[in-house]
Amino acid sequence: MVRTEGARSLYNGLVAGLQRQMSFASVRIGLYDSMKQFYTRGSDHVSIGTRLLAGCTTGAMAVIVAQPTDVVKVRFQAQVRLTDGSSRYSGTMDAYKTIARNEGFRGLWKGTVPNITRNAVVNCAELVTYDLIKDLILKYDLMTDNLPCHFTAAFSAGFCTTIVASPIDVVKTRFMNSVAGQYSGALNCTLTMLTKEGPTAFYKGFVPSFLRLGSWNIVMFVSYEQVKRAMMRAHQN
Fold this sequence. Notes:
By secondary structure, this protein is mostly helical. It has helices at 2-5, 14-28, 32-40, 48-78, 92-103, 112-139, 147-176, 186-197, 206-236.
């Protein structure tokens, strides 16, 4: 990509990506603890099932709210230059307008069902795995509740998430970027890939996906823990 399209191509869809992360993260992560409290009715004991339910709930809520940002990010990153050298979209806002104009507002929510599935799975894998690994580290006194503990739990959560989410990610991206009529739905897209390309097709791009999710998890959870501590100290004062 750097050789054929230049270094800037690595940051295609950056604005849409930032919009997506801010809107998704604020819902799926910001409401996670609140959902746990809601399902446990304020109890201190939180089971794995409750954590999974809370993760699925906030993951689905995030997609319903922020799906258009994900569609634009995928389209913008996958766009190729036309024969005259121009791009399919001139910018992020142009992508929103073009998709809405050519495909209707439903086009901005294309792939919502597979994305709800994907985000629910990713949310559970990220948040629940991080929760459990961190609890185990602290339970067996392997580390104290500080940066190394958060880093280790976040890195492990990123690896687990990549294994679980890669097949859904591949199907979601393929379906969102497909032309009208290519697939009748997400399930048809999945079956077509399986029959024509085999099971390994669902793990295409595993390494870059792990680098993305692993680094994202480390930054997200380490930042989250620091912000949470700062807010708790401010509230106590």
